[in-house]
Specification:
- By secondary structure, the chain is mostly helical.
- The chain has two domains: 46 residues, Arc Repressor Mutant, subunit A (Orthogonal Bundle), CATH 1.10.10.60; 120 residues, Tetracycline Repressor, domain 2.
- The protein has nine helices and no strands.
- α5 crosses α9 and α6 crosses α7.
- It is elongated.
- The termini are far apart.
- 20% of the residues are buried.
Amino acid sequence: MLRDDITTAIRRALMQELAAVGYGRLSIEAVARRAGVSKTAIYRRWSSKTDLVLEIVGAAAHGKLPALDTGSLRGDLALLYQVVAHALRHPLASQIIPDLLAEAARNPAIDETLQRLLRARQQEIGGQLVVRAVRRGELPADTDPEAAVDLIVGPIYWRLAIARTPLTDSYLDALVESVAAGLGAAGALPRPRAEPLPG
């Protein structure tokens, strides 16, 4: 039987080592040293460093979030961004996530897993947020949930992985208003009507 305390120690060591050296330089030997266990203890649980990393990332992606239902679209967006920003400001997350996103461009297994996990998580959280806003009459009935979720979470990924700029409170406040307006929320400027093309 595999001991839970050893498994927990390995997972903690993996996160610390991944943050310290990145995926490319990560080794099972270093994780074992940091966890105070043998390499065999790790290989009993995971067949490779990729399997180890993907399992940990998957577990983190399925972590429990508070109910994002404040009664308004802007309130839901503000709470969602606060929760995401809090998680991403953690020193380990702020180092690990950009590294894994970069590694995904070179590693098909990581890319496929991240795409699947992140897309499922986005639709689970953001999709519910959009559906509630439509039911409340804050968004048009024909709102495309998938496109809406991309608009909601896209700026966060851009700022985290590309711009590498901190998620400040003032930025998140502005983002709530920009995204709500972009989605066509009640109280925002009406969307312009497309003019017919000249014949």
